[in-house]
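Backbone Fold Data
Goal — fold tokens
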Amino acid sequence: MKERLNTKIRKPNNSSSKKVITFSFLSVFSVFVFVNTFFYPSFYSDSSVSTRRNLVDDSRESFDFSGNLCKTKVYMYDLPTNFTYGVIEQHGLARGGERFDDVTGLRYPGHQHMHEWYIFSDLNRPEMERVGSPIVRVFDPAEADLFYVAAFSSLSLIVNSGRPGNSGSGFGYSDEEMQESLVGWLEGQEWWRRNNGRDHVIVAGDPNALKRVMDRVKNAVLLVADLGELGVKQRNNLLFFMGNRYRKDGGRIRDLLFKLLEDEDDVVIKHGTQSKENRRAAKQGMHTSKFCLHPAGDTPSACRLFDSVASLCVPVIVSDGIELPFEDVIDYRKFCIFLRSDVALKPGFLVKKLRKVKPEKILKYQKTMKEVRRYFDYTHLNGSVNEIWRQVTQKIPLIKLMINRGKRMIKREGSDPQCSCLCSNLTGIIHGSLSTYSFFNSSKFLPKSP
């Protein structure tokens, strides 16, 4: 809910497609739903109620014999272990670990993309333990509304991260080969071929996960990516930020903010990359600051937004293209301060504005953050995992629409002009906001995990 699922959920257009949110530095990841620019699916505000099952001949809600709304039925593929536990083993080997005869006993290493582990674990739990979930796991694919592909694509991406390819026990592992192998396996499945993957859900938490094969999985629903105490007196810093100063594209604003703020007396703004020491320093900084700066990075959102919520440090968001998790049920204006980039870069404006915020107002922000923290907690019984599934199920009517439309549309040759009386922009992609994926009709909603 990440706390890039900025997870994102991306839905294609018709031409293409111990508590763990714990208190760590990289805690939540954001998720977006990428859909056609001209469809607006409805939302439900009650996370305990599943969305409608869009049946072939009837778009009304489906009821069981007790009169309750039926849950969305999800079938999870029994993937070869090299796409799941085998990736965990390879990650350990690249860091000096050992091989295991039975990899299914391995635990996922803690880092910001643990969402793929939590969703996988959620579906592996007994149904009676899945309290408040809007979905139910089925073991017959013929019964399924959605198909879940539980590959650990984000962990695979970083197996050899920062390590020369010819060093360590992890030598020889290739994320690109894993991607090709995974999609090859999927394309051999009857249920994938039936609707060209439109009713499949795949985790791609890092923006670069599955990048090599994105054209082959673009029709699927892609899950992408990305606690403190009440009080003001113990927070001596006005504003805190710690992260990489130099980012590309929209994240260039960070360097400009550094230049404006680094000489302010009660502002802590530090350049720092990921490490255990820096995560500890960031946690301490958030807990001792009234406000936490959230500028755009390589993507409009970053996991520190949700770290600051967990720390009850009021987020100050300077990111013009940002979308936020679970916005259909969370009003971020009640605990965040939003500033346009051009306004925030006016000399003296930002700190002057923050100094005017009264302690009572900060306390009000904190109380609201405390109320919404469950949405970003992967271990909460009705937290991030259930919220992720709730918003995924809201896409089922659109998925069914695209499937049915695809069956009756005349396929054009590649050289034929691409035009439509329904929409002049069939791609639905407008580059420039929210990473490389733009124009989302519904909110991103999945937080990053540690």
